[in-house]
Design goal:
Number of helices: 10
CATH architecture of the largest domain: Alpha Horseshoe
Number of strands: 0
Number of domains: 2
CATH topology of the largest domain: Serine Threonine Protein Phosphatase 5, Tetratricopeptide repeat
Largest sheet: none
Helix content: over 70%
Radius of gyration: 16 Å
Oligomer: single chain
Order of helices and strands: HHHHHHHHHH
């Protein structure tokens, strides 16, 4: 994928043995490629399946919300993150994504609160946030 061969990467992942195709690592790799290819609906569907099969793997929830966000289903993306397990709600990336979705939906006050929590949990989020187009409303 990093060599500009995302379609080929997806083809390779489709050829993974059936016994291994439902493993979390294989599913997440497939989701990342689908997101890279901007195949939002397929990525959301696979992420939802991954959430059900691998309840301890937080990336499925985060990727599902991102895919919904990209499909302009911000309210659904928020609902996915708000329903996330408590342990996932204690991560900076969840709050960062909430800030992005709230900002795109026009709730700048809530977006700013979410971003403050994300930065408190992980100070590196602040630098990333300053160049994120979803968060432009926070800085303007």
């Amino acid at each position: 994928m990093y060599l500009g061969m995302a379609t080929e990467a997806l083809d390779e992942l489709e050829n993974v043995d059936a016994l291994e195709s439902d493993e979390a690592g294989v599913m997440l790799a497939r989701i990342r490629v689908l997101l890279h290819l901007r195949r939002w609906k397929a990525a959301e569907k696979l992420s939802r399946t991954g959430e059900e099969m691998h309840v301890d793997e937080e990336e499925f929830t985060v990727q599902r919300a991102f895919a919904l966000h990209q499909m302009r289903k911000g309210v659904d993306a928020l609902a996915v993150l708000e329903a996330a397990p408590e342990w996932l709600r204690r991560t900076g990336i969840l709050h960062y994504n909430l800030a992005c979705y709230e900002a795109r939906l026009g709730d700048i006050k809530t977006a700013r609160q979410c971003m403050n929590v994300a930065i408190q949990m992980n100070s590196a989020m602040e630098k990333k946030a300053q160049t994120d187009p979803d968060l432009q409303g926070l800085w303007n």
